[in-house]
């Protein structure tokens, strides 16, 4: 995979020094292309499992592809307790768990509203959260991109933590989801921010004012 990325794209990774070398880790990233999971696998280079939408496991080819990258299914739009248990087991084993909070590829190239699953796992497990921004993979469509070597950038932010909550409210889920998505959006160009553009601006203003 590394060979193909270097051969077919102009691939750059920034912030690898922010990756904890061991221990449980919740990795969250924006989602632009089916190539994003293997891209993250080679960019982060740690033992990780991926949480992927259940629909991908219904097709024989995509099921083989997903399992090859250590993915397990999750049902979107509802509380999937089996997936939550698998996520907890992954973190308890000291591995990385990768989630794309949006739950699907963005067709526009801009960030779309996220599902609360990543926030639920973050609030239930006291582990570092590693935000990653992906830019450029939206250009990898059709076949023409194979001859253009598109610039693919992976930006790894600094890990942060969220206080464990034994009883999670709907408001906490919403706030934590927005926090996670804003941390991702801050890493990538503004043109990708989509529905989180205003929230990122508000978050930045709050941080600036708090240091005055």
Q: How many strand units?
A: 7
**Alpha-carbon Rg, integer:** 17 Å
CATH class: Alpha Beta
Protein structure class? alpha/beta
Number of domains: 1
Biggest beta sheet summary = 7 strands, mixed
3D structure, described in words:
There is one protein chain. With 212 residues, the protein is an alpha/beta fold. The chain has a single domain, classed as Glycerol-3-phosphate (1)-acyltransferase, CATH 3.40.1130. 35% of the residues lie in helices and 17% in strands. Strands 1-7-6-2-5-3-4 form a seven-stranded mixed beta sheet, with helices on both faces. Strand 3, helix 3 (60-68) and strand 4 form a beta-alpha-beta unit. The chain is globular. 35% of the residues are buried. Residues 206-212 have low confidence and may be disordered.
């Amino acid at each position: 995979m590394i060979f193909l990325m270097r051969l077919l794209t102009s691939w750059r990774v920034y912030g690898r020094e922010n990756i904890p070398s061991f221990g449980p880790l919740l990795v969250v990233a924006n989602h632009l292309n089916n190539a994003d999971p293997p891209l993250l696998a080679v960019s982060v280079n740690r033992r990780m499992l991926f949480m992927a939408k259940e629909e991908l496991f219904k097709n024989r080819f995509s099921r083989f592809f997903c399992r090859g990258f250590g993915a397990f299914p999750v049902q979107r739009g509802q509380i999937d307790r089996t997936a939550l248990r698998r996520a907890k087991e992954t973190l308890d084993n000291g591995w990385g768990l990768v989630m794309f909070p949006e739950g699907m590829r963005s067709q526009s190239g801009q960030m779309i509203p996220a599902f609360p699953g990543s926030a639920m796992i973050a609030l239930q497990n006291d582990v570092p959260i590693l935000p990653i921004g992906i830019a450029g993979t939206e250009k990898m469509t059709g076949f023409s991109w194979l001859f253009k070597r598109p610039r693919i950038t992976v930006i790894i932010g600094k890990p942060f933590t969220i206080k464990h909550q034994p009883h999670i409210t709907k408001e906490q889920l919403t706030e934590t989801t927005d926090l996670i998505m804003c941390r991702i959006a801050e890493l990538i160009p503004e043109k990708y921010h989509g529905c989180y553009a205003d929230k990122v601006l508000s978050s930045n203003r709050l941080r600036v004012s708090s240091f005055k």
